[in-house]
Design a protein that fits this description.
Length: 169
């Protein structure tokens, strides 16, 4: 008796899966489903737009902001308590003091987008957000500094004074 009940459940589940699959296939063939699917031209256009946006500083900072939001959620379990405009203003404030140069090394910071094929950190001279004290989260806005990707990766968890001593020696 138990086997018959189990068999009926499996058949019912399989029928449900088949019904859903058939409904999806019908929808995919419909005009609405066809318009929803992205064409290769549309995908290429969106990729080009992303590349253009990341070439300019504000577009690159917006990209960094999204990355920070994700890391804040994953690593610290909370949301950022400021908007992207605050991050952009902080960047312009730093450029008044250092220009477009890394405060640690003096290397010119860039916003070169390498495309989706070359995922990772991009160019070693690209702008990266550094937390001066790695123990604090991204919500401590006074703890943030814009540096090159290269120096941020090399810095790791070193405190800023230690890092400055290494660079000065």
């Amino acid at each position: 008796m138990k086997q018959q009940v189990k068999k009926v459940k499996n058949n019912g589940r399989k029928k449900t899966i088949d019904r859903v699959r058939n409904a999806y296939n019908k929808w995919e063939q419909s005009p609405k489903g066809q318009s929803y699917r992205k064409s290769p031209e549309r995908i290429a256009m969106e990729t080009k737009r992303t590349r253009i946006n990341k070439k300019n500083v504000v577009g690159h900072l917006k990209y960094l902001y999204q990355s920070m939001r994700k890391r804040q959620r994953e690593d610290f379990g909370s949301e950022l308590n400021y908007k992207v405009e605050t991050l952009i203003n902080l960047f312009w404030k730093q450029t008044e003091k250092y220009g477009m140069k890394c405060p640690y090394t003096g290397v010119k910071m860039t916003t070169i987008h390498t495309g989706k094929k070359d995922r990772g950190y991009g160019q070693s001279t690209n702008i990266s957000v550094d937390r001066k004290d790695s123990e604090l989260d991204y919500n401590a806005i006074d703890n943030l500094r814009f540096v090159t990707v290269d120096i941020n990766l090399k810095k790791g968890a070193c405190p800023p004074k230690f890092m400055q001593n290494i660079l000065n020696s």
